[in-house]
């Protein structure tokens, strides 16, 4: 991984200075379990924000609140200028249609071919496309992740890394304004993880994508993130560049870097 250049944005140096996402004092509890405890952060246009934390830190709950799958108990979550905590289901769906997701396991429909998986997502978002337009979009998305030759394969025929790539093609096919990556390198060998990291970096450049990357993988954080926030017990423990986080003197944060 030494040959890969790090992103070098420092805290406050955000591309274009246009926040697309803002959390303001967001709280979420499940019974007596306080998962989010007043977190505040923003994601700017063209930025890759890493949310780093161990299991149970609140990373996934924050994203579920972002897209309205879970309702925050308190606070504001603004996405593309709209407070999602105040939207109805129809309005939330309009927001969701502009967000691409790469789920941890790829989340492909096992009974559908790769072509059918991508077509289903595209047609769900835009029902007015012709068959030719759908076919062109599918081929373009698969080409962008290097798997055009897998178009008629079943998910069971794909490796874990290939499933991640197809999942990413499915996220890209709707031309999203925001991409959310959920543990994109989890469960992959080092070589395949590196390929996914390179793909995330290239997508940022090609699509000018605005992304949230949920991970506990320091290598992924180092090479894909412009900025990192570290969550612990539902609070933001640290924020900054990878170097800022690595040089943090807090003992708990230092433990991330101890082998």
UniProtKB/TrEMBL annotation:
Keyword Ribosomal protein attached: no
Annotated SUPFAM superfamilies: P-loop containing nucleoside triphosphate hydrolases
Pfam families from the UniProt entry: ABC_tran
Transmembrane stretches, start-end: none
Tree of life domain: Bacteria
Ranges where the ABC transporter domain occurs: 21-258
Key words of the record: ATP-binding, Nucleotide-binding, Transport
InterPro entries: AAA+_ATPase, ABC_transporter-like_ATP-bd, ABC_transporter-like_CS, P-loop_NTPase
A GO molecular function held by the record: ATP hydrolysis activity
PANTHER family: PROTEIN TRIGALACTOSYLDIACYLGLYCEROL 3, CHLOROPLASTIC (PTHR43023)
Protein name, entry field: ATP-binding cassette domain-containing protein
Provenance organism: Flavobacterium silvisoli
């Amino acid at each position: 991984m030494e040959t890969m250049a790090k992103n070098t944005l420092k805290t406050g140096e955000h591309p274009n200075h246009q926040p697309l996402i803002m959390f303001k004092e967001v709280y979420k509890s499940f019974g007596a379990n306080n998962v989010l405890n007043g977190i505040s952060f923003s994601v700017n246009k063209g930025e890759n924000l890493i949310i780093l934390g161990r299991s149970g830190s609140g990373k996934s709950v924050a994203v579920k609140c972002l897209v309205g799958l879970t309702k925050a108990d308190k606070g504001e979550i603004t996405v593309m200028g709209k407070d999602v905590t105040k939207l109805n289901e129809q309005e939330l769906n309009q927001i969701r249609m502009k967000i691409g997701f790469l789920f941890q396991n790829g989340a492909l429909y096992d009974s559908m071919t790769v072509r059918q998986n991508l077509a289903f997502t595209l047609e769900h978002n835009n029902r007015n496309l012709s068959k030719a337009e759908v076919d062109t979009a599918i081929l373009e998305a698969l080409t962008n992740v290097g798997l055009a030759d897998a178009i008629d394969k079943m998910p069971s025929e794909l490796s874990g890394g290939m499933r991640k790539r197809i999942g990413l093609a499915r996220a890209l096919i709707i031309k999203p304004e925001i991409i959310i990556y959920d543990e994109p390198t989890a469960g992959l060998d080092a070589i395949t993880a590196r390929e996914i990291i390179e793909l995330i970096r290239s997508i940022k450049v090609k699509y000018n994508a605005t992304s949230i990357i949920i991970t506990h993988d320091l290598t992924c954080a180092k090479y894909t993130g412009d900025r990192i926030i570290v969550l612990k017990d539902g609070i933001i423990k640290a924020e900054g560049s990878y170097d800022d986080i690595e040089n943090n003197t807090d003992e708990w944060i230092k433990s991330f870097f101890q082998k």
